[in-house]
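Can anyone check this?
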Amino acid sequence: MRSFEGQPKTEAGLEEDFATIGVTHGMTLMVHSSLSSIGWVVGGAPTVVRALLSVLGEGGTLVMPAATPLGTDPANWSSPRLPEAWLADVREHLPVFDARTTPTTLGAICESFRTWPNTLRSDHPVESVCARGVAASTIVSEHPLAFSEGPGGPFEKLYNLNCRILLLGVGFNRCTALHFAESLVDRRRVKTLRFPVVDNGQRVWTEVPNVADDNGAHFPVVGQEYVAEGEVRRGKIGDAPSMLFPMRNLVDFAARYFDGVL
């Protein structure tokens, strides 16, 4: 049974917290989040989305990842790890990604934002991004299948827009901009993504290269060093320890780090 500690978190209170940490009207903001870290929110995840949209205003753009890792070959899933005997059936019947209906598994706030009126979504089958606001169509309009977090896609657009990143109750291990930074260096780590697509009316499996998962090897270290040297505003959103910083500064810092250690 869940314990109820402190005070309930309201939309007005969250708006105040977002403004205090530095979210402003007209900002382009990418949010990585954990609803449970905020505390008990009146109205749940939609309240958090409404508060963010209110503080950003009509001139702003809200962006969130909408990744679908369970749209890949089930043999490579880490959670859940399926029984070997299931793999053939799951692989045969795994639905093809649909930007309109395929849910993200990145948490309640991201999923609530995905379904929000006028939210747009890029069409990458595994690493899609959602955006709503003045720059949304620019951000999601192109998303290459290979190296999906690299140049030519939403993350380069966000970099060029001088986007801010809000880590809301999560750490740098959840910060997708670090994959973009790694994609820019020569010795980037690479994995193969395998997923179903529709090609000429037929469901087929395709494979593309992508920047590999970090699994805690470097991202927390990059984050710790960046916080010590970079332009980071720290505070709490509800009960959630949070950080706000410029994406461009982090990416430039991280690219130098990766270029030296990989």
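Reply from J.R.: I decoded it. The chain has a mean pLDDT of 96.
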